[in-house]
Design goal:
It contains one helix and five strands. The protein is of the alpha+beta class and 91 residues long. It has one domain: SH3 type barrels. A five-stranded antiparallel β-sheet has the order 4-3-2-1-5, covered by helices on one side. The chain is rod-shaped, with a radius of gyration of 20 Å. Its main location: membrane.
Length: 91
Amino acid sequence: MASFIPLILVFVIMYFLMIRPQQKRMKEHRAMVEAVKKGDEVITQGGIIGKVVGVRDGEVEVEIATGVKVRVIKSTISSVVVRSAPVAANS
């Protein structure tokens, strides 16, 4: 039994130093991707920078140049560079 204590200790340390921070980063990325909206400027994992012009289930339409739009899967967005201002409700 005493020989298993160091092995268990290694797994506990590995969980807190490696697995838990990775899960936290994944959760933050998922929240960021779900919050992407029209007007945001994004960077994809492929390095493409563009402005979001449409959001659908699971994908985003990104304008990378004037008149050039590409459809990108939401999960491939690596970061949001510029968040658009909230749209005011029309009264």
